[in-house]
Amino acid sequence: MKVIEGGVTAAAGFLSASTAAEIKYKNRQDMAMIYSETPCKAAGTFTTNIVKAAPVKWDQNVVKNSPFAQAVVINAGIANACTGAEGYGYCKDTADVAAEVLKIPADAVLVASTGVIGMQLPMDRITAGVKAMAPKLDGSTESGTGAAQAIMTTDTKKKEVAVQVELGGKTVTIGGMCKGSGMIHPNMCTMLAFVTTDAAISKELLQEALSEDIQDTYNMISVDGDTSTNDTVLLLANGMSGNPEITEKNEDYETFKKALNYVNETLAKKMAGDGEGCTALFEVTIVGAESKEQAKILAKSVITSSLTKAAIFGHDANWGRILCAMGYSGAIFDPEKVDLFFQSAAGKMQIIENGVAVDYSEEQATKILSEPEVTAIADVKMGDATASAWGCDLTFDYVKINADYRS
């Protein structure tokens, strides 16, 4: 596998565009479009929140029932959530406009929104944005980056990645972009992720690969414990690489899954590391677990602990908070057998052994915890299973950002 420059336009046949529609934000791009030159197999996974935004409902129907998908229209600023039949009708209106200008069926158009809940979309601006983007569709890296920037809300940086692998003697590319900074919590988050590939693969295996992979990627991140109404991951495959279509779980399928995992994990970590107001990406890895499920439960519990997150912000090696979070996770383990380590670019240090603090330097621990990427590793000594979860520190700025988000 080779990591390359780019995002959603890296794969053959995928174009993108962005525009400033002024849906909420002023003087910045706030709409994006992804378009494939040929019809795509489509897969998707969506929020587990019972309160689902209109675009989620629209996309669930397209992914399940449409013969193919070919375009995605995304807006930032207004989530089109809790907007009733009117909001759902606006999804159809958006798809109809895109279908007209792109000359594709309306049920081949996916839509996505992110932003404030409860507000109706200004359809005059959405319509104008769609019409403005269609002539600007472009397959360049710059166009893909522009789209990644346009879908941001409280994000501080664009998030994209692309890789290449060989399938059936052909070079296949998988690229993606995402947004997500707050209201981030399993299972899936206020996150939108769009992954494109020129691989030829059956719709059934495309969906299976995505559904399996989100369990170890997007579902293992948390910023603030709030599961959004709009979470959407879309995966489009147009087959333009020319590889023999993957229709069974063979070696090519496993290679495809590994590349997809790299893309999704990279995007997931970029979101966790850009949590609202955060100063550090915080990774928790559980090793020595008796099962992967046990390891996941323990890792998620620590990553969502507000006290632990606050300690990371303070560069404080307050290991008791980590052990405490593991203890209320619901997973069974022996706390008197746990070893805990902190690790970053500044080094690695053991903090506790068999549940008891070792003689460590607080000064060195603070140095390790002062890096922009920090990892806590807990060994529960019960088996050989492992899992990682990703989050961030909890800062004063998180409260500031969310206290006046609507205004």
From TrEMBL:
Site positions for Involved in the stabilization of negative charge on the oxyanion by the formation of the oxyanion hole = 114-115
Q: Which InterPro entries match?
A: Arg_biosynth_ArgJ, ArgJ-like_dom_sf, ArgJ_beta_C
> Which is a GO BP term held by this UniProt record?
L-arginine biosynthetic process
**Key word Metal-binding present:** no
Active-site positions, per UniProt?
A: 190 (nucleophile)
For this protein, what is the EC number? 2.3.1.35, 2.3.1.1
- Pathways per UniProt: Amino-acid biosynthesis; L-arginine biosynthesis; L-ornithine and N-acetyl-L-glutamate from L-glutamate and N(2)-acetyl-L-ornithine (cyclic): step 1/1; Amino-acid biosynthesis; L-arginine biosynthesis; N(2)-acetyl-L-ornithine from L-glutamate: step 1/4
Show the catalytic activity. Answer: N(2)-acetyl-L-ornithine + L-glutamate = N-acetyl-L-glutamate + L-ornithine; L-glutamate + acetyl-CoA = N-acetyl-L-glutamate + CoA + H(+)
Q: Which HAMAP family match?
A: ArgJ
**Which PANTHER family does the record cross-reference, listed alphabetically?**
ARGININE BIOSYNTHESIS BIFUNCTIONAL PROTEIN ARGJ, ARGININE BIOSYNTHESIS BIFUNCTIONAL PROTEIN ARGJ, MITOCHONDRIAL
Write out the similarity annotation.
Belongs to the ArgJ family.
Q: Which NCBIfam families match?
A: ArgJ, PRK05388.1
Q: What is this protein called?
A: Arginine biosynthesis bifunctional protein ArgJ
> What species does this protein belong to?
Hungatella hathewayi WAL-18680
Q: What is the lineage of its organism?
A: Bacteria, Bacillati, Bacillota, Clostridia, Lachnospirales
